[in-house]
Design a protein that fits this description.
By secondary structure, the chain is α+β, with helices and mostly antiparallel strands. It has twelve helices and ten strands. The longest helix has about 40 residues. Bound molecules: 3,4-dihydroxyphenylalanine (DAH). 3,4-dihydroxyphenylalanine binds next to strand 9 and strand 10.
Length: about 350
């Protein structure tokens, strides 16, 4: 028995010397202490076969050896774990003497924001109030109040997103949802401009997106006529492009104006000669406009015999694309820094 215990101890210590990592240590543990067939376990079991003094003597010895081996095992385990932490610390060491110089990255304004701010400034200089409106709005302000009843075919070209369970709420398809609201808020006479984000249920491609920006201006006063309309639009566009612009009107249909027009601007690039940018026509389609429809004035609580108005609305996104020569509208909402960092 003595011999067996000596042998076990010797072998265990030798094995322990060779252990370099926890896994090896676990193997060693199995070899000597596993319940089924560990060498130490077997030795302990064989004690049962002894009797009397021999049992007592070797029992004591065996227990001492067992305890000794367990202590050695524990020590080795601690050592290995400490080394492991040390390795980790080494690999993550920080150079505390290194100066902390954060990389400076300045953001920049989105091209639509740049154009929006310019338009706001020009409008304010012309005496317009600049307002902001709700993107989620009632069907009433978005359509009904603008002389576009439920059954009207104009709803097709302005199809937008509705809120589940709330058929009377939609993402506004144009900023014209502000017309009646603004008259109700400020009364008359009125000069107000409202840029903002708009939505359409559109299949997207290089020139269509489901989300884009518009700009609209509304004037309510006595005896407003088409001459006023042309004059104000020319002034605003000239302020925006910082040079005199020439415009022309074509008849256009929008349910909330009467008469209604499409307005083209003489191409600023070729000055009307015809170029790639204007489809070789010399003119660029710029906005929709007209004199405010009597029904809209009535919806706002005004007497159309007393008050009249003009309104014009344009795609601010389109303007930004022209100004910065952006060839695909989808870049604008992409959040792609490679695109955004150019502005
Ligand atoms: N709301 C129209 C659109 O989204 C644009 C428009 C046309 C605005 C004529 C106006 C207007 O103020 O008079 O297509």
């Amino acid at each position: 028995m003595q011999e067996t215990l000596d042998k076990i101890k010797k072998e265990f210590i030798k094995g322990l010397d060779e252990v370099k990592e926890v896994l090896q240590l676990e193997e060693l543990e199995q070899k000597f202490f596993s319940r089924k067939s560990g060498e130490m376990t077997e030795a302990m079991k064989s004690l049962k076969k002894l009797s009397g003094d021999a049992k007592a003597e070797f029992g004591k010895l065996a227990n001492e050896v067992k305890k000794e081996l367990e202590d050695l095992y524990g020590k080795k385990k601690n050592e290995l774990e400490k080394n492991k932490m040390g390795d980790l610390a080494d690999s993550e060491s920080i150079d505390v003497t290194q100066p902390n110089l954060p990389k400076k990255e300045n953001g920049s304004l989105h091209p639509e924001t740049l154009v929006l701010r310019e338009m706001e400034e020009v409008s304010r200089n012309m005496g317009f109030i600049v307002e902001d409106g709700p993107e989620l709005d009632s069907d009433y302000f978005s359509f009904e109040a603008l002389n576009i009843p439920d059954s009207h075919p104009a709803r097709d070209s302005q199809d937008t997103f509705y809120i589940k369970g709330h058929p009377n709420w939609c993402m506004r398809p144009h900023v014209s949802n502000m017309q009646v609201r603004m008259i109700q808020k400020y009364g008359t006479p009125l000069r107000v401009a409202y840029p903002g984000r708009t939505f359409r249920n559109e299949a997207t491609d290089a020139s269509h997106d489901h989300t884009f920006y518009q700009f609209e201006a509304l004037v309510i006063d006595k005896d407003i006529n088409v001459g006023n309309l042309i004059g104000i639009i020319k002034e605003l566009l000239s302020g925006l492009y910082k040079k005199d612009v020439e415009v022309r009107l074509r008849p256009g249909y929008f349910p909330f104006v009467e008469p209604g027009f499409e307005m083209d601007m003489k191409c600023l690039i070729c000055e009307g000669q015809g170029c790639g940018a204007c489809g070789h026509s010399g003119w660029v389609e710029t906005l929709g406009c007209g004199l405010v429809h009597p029904k809209v004035l009535e919806a706002a609580g005004l007497d159309p015999k007393e008050w009249s108005g003009l309104a014009f609305g344009m795609g601010l996104t389109r303007l930004a694309m022209q100004k910065y020569r952006i060839e695909d509208i989808r870049h604008l909402q992409s959040g792609d820094l490679r695109f955004l960092k150019q502005f």
